């Protein structure tokens, strides 16, 4: 059985694509660092080390947009792109999970 077909990504500028990609990479790394969800220090450490580079890439993509005169973000369009790229599930790893009743 084939997996369901994803909706198409909305039309984005190259800089917007870079912002979305770098943002999701930062989200993934923060999820791996989250002390309420991580199980080992080494994996969290590696993610924290990588976070510096990915945050810089996000900053550079936003700087490029700003320098080109792209002064506004389009939350509706960028939100659709994040949803298509599984951003909601990925962002859930940033939250503190509910406490289990004992």
Commentary on this structure:
The chain has 102 residues and is an all-alpha fold. 62% of the residues lie in helices and 0% in strands. It is built from four helices and no strands. It has helices at residues 14-33, 41-67, 75-84, 87-92. Helix 1 (14-33) packs antiparallel against helix 2. The longest helix is centred in the middle third of the chain and has 27 residues, at 41-67. It is globular.
* Helix/strand order: HHHH
Helix content: 55-70%
Low-confidence stretches: none
How large is the radius of gyration?
16 Å
Shape: globular
Structural class: mainly alpha
Largest sheet, in brief, is: none
Q: What value does the average pLDDT take?
A: 92
Beginning-to-end CA distance, first to last residue:
41 Å
- Please report which band the strand proportion falls in: under 5%, 5-15%, 15-25%, 25-35%, 35-45% or over 45%: under 5%
Number of helices: 4
């Amino acid at each position: 059985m084939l997996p369901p077909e994803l909706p198409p990504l909305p039309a984005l500028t190259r800089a917007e694509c870079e912002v979305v990609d770098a943002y999701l990479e930062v989200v993934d790394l923060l999820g791996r660092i989250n002390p309420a969800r991580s199980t080992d220090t080494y994996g969290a450490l590696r993610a924290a080390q990588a976070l510096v580079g990915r945050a810089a890439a996000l900053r550079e993509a936003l700087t490029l947009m700003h320098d080109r005169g792209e002064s506004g973000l389009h939350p509706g369009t960028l939100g659709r792109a994040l949803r298509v790229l599984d951003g909601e599930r990925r962002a859930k790893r940033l939250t503190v999970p509910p406490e289990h009743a004992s």
